[in-house]
């Protein structure tokens, strides 16, 4: 990757971006053609609905009748025929005497295989990890039949077991391991896949599944760009600037129109005008991958099921699914209140994203735009220190924005301190030498 674009490709990039809304309304999206998607084989973005919407009653019946012990299994099955054909056969046969739903599913779907590769007896852990990279390496650029998988143009590493897809924030730590093992090529490919997803969907989904498209995960894309830039140089910041900007727009959507003490999607404006972020999900339905479990959680509760489902989904976006951190009573899942919490770690990541944008614009020579993002980062940092620092506990905490109070200390409160050194370096390189992003209370 040379981090630059020819005049022709830059012009093409602008034209394609202008056409995206029209293409989206037509049911598919053409990916943005830029330097890091050069060589990608995928020309359109998957636009299928999640299995719960494609299969309707069939999906619900399979999940609620427990055909599979794990709800994720059916959500991940490969369709051997089109959904329309399967549903037509289901409507015709479900009324037959002795209809066997399990046999029907095995007739029309293919079961996914889990990636399990245990270590050999006495094998050193570092040797085992290095050997696993190729075992867990997946390629989904060509799809056969129907599936909830969102195809990606480059190889990527999956967690393994029942998790056969590329996850967002998990992958940053995978990329750290890849770099440590000299697999820069695979780490770079994963960054390109995330950039592809942002170009396609406007954000990085929780994972590359259709049922994950309604949410993201902690925004680590800017840290991934940092990691790759250590090898590729500062040109990486300019090369991925469109995706960094789109990531920021996704998380900040609605911030310009909110009034005090209002929330919209992933942003909240407090009564004093402070804008911070929260976790969210655009759907208020049971999760495809945990369908039966989510419905069981909602049964018999004096709570709007949609509100409960959205908060379960928002917790899944946080990556802390599930933790007492999100529970009003500290122990019952049905008291989950994720969307009422302003998480300290998420807002620290947003500081990093703002600082990275400032750095990228400075490198590109746009001082005004760089200064704009520096100011946003400084403002957010001040809000974190003002609202999320607990003087009594000497720790950072989440903030309950509807009740205007700090929440109990969790491990997330370590996040500002862990990232302090790298953020100080970023802040200084973002054309703001008088200010460093130190979250340590003096």
Structure description:
With about 450 residues, the protein is mostly helical. It has 4 domains: about 5-45 and about 115-145 and about 150-250, no CATH class; about 50-110, no CATH class; about 255-280 and about 345-430, no CATH class; about 290-340, no CATH class. Helices cover about 45% and strands about 5% of the residues. It is built from 18 helices and 14 strands. The protein has helices spanning about 5-25, 50-55, 55-65, 70-75, 85-95, 100-110, 125-135, 170-180, 185-200, 220-230, 235-240, 240-250, 290-300, 305-320, 345-365, 365-390, 415-420, 420-430, and strands at about 30, 45, 80, 110, 135-140, 155, 260-265, 265-270, 275, 340, 390, 395, 400, 405. A hairpin with a 5-residue loop joins strand 8 (about 265-270) and strand 9. The chain is globular. The two termini are about 40 Å apart.
| Total individual domains | 4
Radius of gyration: 23 Å
Taking pLDDT < 50 over at least 5 consecutive residues as the criterion, the unreliable ranges are: 1-33, 430-442
Strand content: 5-15%
Query: Major sheet: size, sense and barrel closure?
Result: 3 strands, antiparallel
Give a count of the beta strands, DSSP E runs of length 2 or more: 14
Number of helices: 18
Could you give the order of strands across the largest sheet?
7-8-9
Q: How would you classify the helix and strand content by structural class? A: mainly alpha
């Amino acid at each position: 990757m040379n981090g630059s674009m020819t005049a022709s490709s830059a012009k093409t990039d602008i034209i394609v971006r202008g056409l995206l809304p029209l293409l989206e309304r037509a049911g598919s999206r053409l990916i943005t053609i830029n330097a890091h998607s050069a060589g990608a084989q995928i020309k359109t973005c998957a636009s299928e609905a999640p299995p719960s919407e494609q299969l309707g009653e069939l999906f619900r019946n399979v999940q609620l009748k427990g055909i599979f012990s794990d709800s994720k299994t059916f959500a991940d099955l490969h369709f051997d025929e089109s959904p329309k054909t399967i549903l037509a056969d289901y409507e015709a046969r479900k009324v037959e005497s002795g209809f066997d739903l399990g046999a029907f599913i095995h007739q029309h779907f293919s079961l996914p295989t889990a990636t399990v590769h245990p270590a050999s007896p006495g094998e050193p852990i570092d040797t085992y990890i290095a050997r696993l990279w190729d075992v867990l390496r997946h390629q989904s650029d060509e799809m056969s039949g129907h599936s909830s998988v969102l195809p990606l143009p480059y190889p990527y590493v999956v967690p393994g077991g029942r998790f056969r897809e590329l996850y967002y924030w998990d992958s940053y730590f995978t990329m750290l391991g890849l770099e440590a093992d000299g697999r820069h090529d695979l780490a770079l490919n994963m960054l390109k896949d995330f950039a592809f997803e942002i170009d396609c969907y406007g954000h990085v989904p929780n994972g590359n599944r259709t049922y994950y498209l309604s949410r993201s995960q902690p925004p680590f894309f800017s840290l991934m760009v940092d990691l790759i830039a250590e090898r590729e140089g500062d040109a990486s910041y300019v090369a991925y600037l469109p995706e960094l900007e789109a990531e920021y727009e996704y998380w900040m959507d609605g911030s310009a129109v909110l009034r005090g003490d209002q929330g919209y999607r992933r942003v909240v404006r407090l009564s004093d005008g402070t804008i911070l972020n929260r976790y969210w999900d655009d759907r208020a339905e049971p999760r495809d991958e945990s369908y039966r479990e989510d419905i069981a959680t909602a049964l018999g509760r004096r709570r709007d099921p949609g509100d409960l489902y959205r908060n379960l989904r928002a917790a899944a976006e946080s990556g802390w699914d599930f933790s007492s951190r999100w529970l009003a009573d500290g122990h019952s899942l049905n008291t989950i209140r994720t969307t009422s919490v302003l998480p300290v770690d998420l807002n620290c990541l947003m500081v990093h994203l703002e600082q990275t944008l400032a750095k990228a614009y400075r490198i590109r020579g746009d001082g005004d735009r760089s200064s704009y993002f520096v100011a946003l980062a400084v403002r957010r940092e001040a809000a974190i220190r003002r609202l999320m620092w607990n003087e009594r506990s000497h720790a950072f905490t989440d903030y309950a924005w509807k009740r205007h109070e700090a929440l109990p200390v969790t491990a997330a409160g370590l996040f500002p301190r862990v990232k302090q050194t790298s953020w100080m370096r970023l802040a200084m390189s973002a054309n703001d030498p008088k200010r460093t992003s130190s979250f340590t209370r003096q």
